[in-house]
Amino acid sequence: MRLGEVGWPTTLGGYEIDILVQGYPGKSVHNGGLGWSTVTLLRGHGRVILLDTGGFGLRAALKQRLGALGLACDDVTDVLLSHSHWDHIVNYPLFPRARLHIGQQDLEWAISGDESVYAVAEFYAQQLAREPRLTYLEIGKEAFPSIRTEHAPGHTPGHLLFVLVGEDRDLIFAQDAAKSRAELVSLTTDLTIDHAQSRATLENIWTLWKARDGTIVVPGHDLPLILEGGAVKTLGERQAAIVGFLGDSLEEQTHFSLSVR
Ligand SMILES: [Zn+2]
Questions:
Q1: How far is ligand 1, taken at its centre, from the CA of residue 82, in Å?
Q2: How far apart are CA 67 and CA 20, in angstroms?
């Protein structure tokens, strides 16, 4: 999804912005977490930046969607990671030429063995910490031109969010600091190691959101959101479905839509 397709600028702060994969705000009922997270591509200032990488199941889709933009994995110059969970980081090995960026506090927590660690792919996190191409992000500083890093703890201790400061609006990549519209509106969170911290982080996101008219929030597992007259509006069409092979041949397919309209 390009922001321009839903009536908003395709470029902001000198970047072309493509949401390569929509996040989905839900869990499976009987088979654990889905982990369908938002992956965004930012192209500008001489860089090709992938903001989070999604989970294992996204590998083919990532290559296909980059290819549709005329890009190969080797063209990605930077992988920017919000936090250490498996559904955000495990595809960084697909981008061998990219510099890798994450918060030090979060990665150290992920490999600490602390009992609070959850949803981490242990070996990927350990290898990430050893990567010579890894850079730790500084809170309050620009990770890239016009992209500011902010601490957004709760979901994980060192979770970061990114504010793309545009000409007439900002774009807040909240990632799992606000996984969904439901979390933002209700100020409550599912899956956090510190509910009070998560709530304070959600309140901070609201402050940032209201600070400039037209600012868009990109949650970690939902469609982008904008405020219109104080009401939260979802941008774009949700694309989420499952095909089941429930008959006696692969031709017999059952399509389950995961969106309501
Ligand atoms: Zn997470």
A1: 9
A2: 11
